[in-house]
Amino acid sequence: MSPVESSRDESVYMAKLAEQAERYEEMVEFMEKVAKTVDAGEELTVEERNLLSVAYKNVIGARRASWRIISSIEQKEESRGNEDHVVLIKDYRGKIEAELSKICDGILKLLDSHLVPSAATAESKVFYLKMKGDYHRYLAEFKTGVERKEAAENTLLAYKSAQDIALADLAPTHPIRLGLALNFSVFYYEILSSPDRACNLAKQAFDEAISELDTLGEESYKDSTLIMQLLRDNLTLWTSDITEDAGDEIKEAPPKRDSVEGQ
């Protein structure tokens, strides 16, 4: 084993260790190291790309949750006219937004410089382009004005590129294709405020997958039906006219980890 291979294996092991310890920032660092040591024209393994995805999803997920909580409190304080509190909250929200921007910029640079260019299979191309769309969408969640418009446009471009490949080369039941449809539909609903397009995309993906469920193996069946359930949950939420449902959580594709990795 060459020193490079040894270092790569060590970094993967350390990333798994960091995951078990729930030290996701360090997990990101280990997996970034792996991604940057891969030679031009060589891809990350499925295990490696899933580790990278899980690491970033946890790091960004904590900040997204914080941002939503702080934004909700800010709205309540504004409605009560507590201007002194609002000033403090806006400043604190800005700190969280700076962290969100830094995380998104980090993975987007890695995707553009290493991961997307080296993707050779349809599956990996869709995986990374979907990831690119996801992190531009996370920027669009809190950016305003021109920056929000730019983030939304970049999200749409990445998701459409992924969708073109997925529709041509991946089965309707493929978990990555389904995860893309799920997150793309969330983008239409939340960022573009287009519930009709969101519902159409989610329903089409669900219907196409359900007609081919009998062709799935046991492992794929579990992964695919989980995402199909999330698609259906969102469709139920989005098509409901009951106002109290507006606060329910919209579902996104979970980061995938292979069962052999002990999760």
Structure explained in plain terms:
With 263 residues, this protein is mainly α. It has a domain at 1-120: Up-down Bundle (Delta-Endotoxin, domain 1), CATH 1.20.190.20. 78% of the residues lie in helices and 0% in strands. Helix 2 (24-37) crosses helix 3 and helix 7 runs parallel beside helix 9 (218-239). Mean pLDDT is 91; it is low at 241-245 and 257-263.
Descriptive keywords:
globular; 14-3-3_CS; 14-3-3_dom_sf; 14-3-3_domain; 263 residues; mainly alpha; 14-3-3 protein Lil 1433-1; Delta-Endotoxin, domain 1; 0% strand
Please bin the fraction of helical residues.
Answer: over 70%
Task: Output mean pLDDT.
Answer: 91
Number of strands: 0
Query: Beta-strand level of the residues, as a percent range?
Result: under 5%
Biggest beta sheet summary: none
As a whole number of angstroms, the C-alpha radius of gyration is: 19 Å
Shape: globular
According to CATH, what is the class of the domain at 1-120? Mainly Alpha
User: Pairing-aware structural class of the strands and helices?
Assistant: mainly alpha
Looking at the overall shape, the CATH architecture of the domain at 1-120 is: Up-down Bundle
CATH topology of the domain at 1-120: Delta-Endotoxin, domain 1
Tally of helical runs: 9
N-end to C-end Cα span: 28 Å
Q: Strand-and-helix sequence, N→C?
A: HHHHHHHHH
CATH superfamily of the domain at 1-120: 14-3-3 domain
Q: Low-confidence parts, pLDDT < 50 over ≥5 residues?
A: 241-245, 257-263
Domain 14-3-3: 8-252
Site (Interaction with phosphoserine on interacting protein): 64, 137
Organism: Lilium longiflorum
Protein name: 14-3-3 protein Lil 1433-1
